[in-house]
Each structure stands twice: as structure tokens, then as C-alpha cells.
Amino acid sequence: MKISRKEFLDRSTKIAAAAILSPLALHARELSPERKIRIALIGCGSVSRMYFPHLLKSPFVDLVCCCDIIPERAKTAAEKFKIFNLEP
Asked: The whole model's pTM is what?
């Protein structure tokens, strides 16, 4: 079965998001409803645009930081998805 690169990226991104969020959902149930798991995302390239929205929609995740080897790319992603780096 042959699939296009776009379809491969779409499928693999959804699988990766499910793999990441499933254990988080189980862990988040143990937490109080007000608390979320804080996540920092490394890598803001083209594929990240597919999973940023999924992470932001999750009721169990608080996306607090993103970074990339190209600082401008991280800044653009942070502005687009309203991610603000938080100090500890």
C-alpha cells in the first residue's frame, strides 16, 4: 500500500499525539481538575504545526514553552499558538 508523504505525516502525527496524550490523560485523572501537566515542546518545524493544535486542545495539558535550534522559528510558533515561556 502506497501513501503520500502528506498522508504519512498526518497519520504518524495523530499516532504520536495519541501516544503522548493517552498516558497524560491517565496521570491527569489522578490530579485535581484545576491542575494540568505542564509541557515544553522542543522543535518547532513543519511537523510541529500538526501537533501543536492537538496539545493545545487537550484538557490535561498546559503547553508552557517551545524552543527550536532556530530561535525565530520558536518565537513565531509561540506567538501563533499563544505559548508564553514561564519562569519557574
From this structure: 0.55
